[in-house]
């Protein structure tokens, strides 16, 4: 479990970015947690605090009941527990060949070479990028780079994976692949914390949410409780997912994802009958 106790953070004195944030990640059984909020509200700053790249100016962060230690040994231990993939994958890709970049962090931890090879091969296969193993990074697409960056974290076998804007810059196919990948990781027991401005994407993959506004948590809860609060979303400069809009405007059931909507044959029959009634009235 990750616990934040009264976390404050500021880059400049008297200009707070995070304000008195207290929460427990993983305490309620949620394995896919989403942080949503407008630009500049502190989501990325919060993520950097969670992985020890920034240190809170007030409060403390505990991982499995122990405060983060900000020395080299403590941070190495932390990053085996919590890994982050940045919005811009190029920020964490250091080698020119895929397999070398994925293995980078393991070499720093003095993992035996045969174990490194096994982990790299296993993760590349899991992410469906084994065919890119020997390929130069410069020839990869944006989506492929994101997968390589994720692979570089997964080889550490971290309990928690933080993804900051994972669909940013991806075309529709790349976005679909990212959604499928995240669902695959979730099914394999990976715990994930996400941040994104894409509300349809977040509604689809997350099961618990925190809304950040001006550096503070203004609401938390399961997807239904958060996204049905239309006024709060508007005040937070966020949009409702299209499935929620269908629910509220057309009085359809609130489906957890589009697959559930399309699988509802009863609904399809109702819509067809309604269309037939409309056509008969017009006739």
From TrEMBL:
Which BP terms from GO are recorded? cobalt ion transport
Protease among keywords = no
The record's GO molecular-function terms, alphabetically, read: ATP binding; ATP hydrolysis activity; ATPase-coupled transmembrane transporter activity
Q: Which GO terms describe its cellular component?
A: ATP-binding cassette (ABC) transporter complex
Where, by residue number, does the polypeptide cross the bilayer?
none
Which superkingdom heads the taxonomic lineage of this protein's source?
Bacteria
Q: How does it sit in the membrane?
A: Peripheral membrane protein
NCBIfam families per record: cbiO
Could you say which protein family the record assigns here?
Belongs to the ABC transporter superfamily.
State the name under which the record lists this protein. ABC transporter ATP-binding protein
> From which organism does this entry originate?
Secundilactobacillus collinoides DSM 20515 = JCM 1123
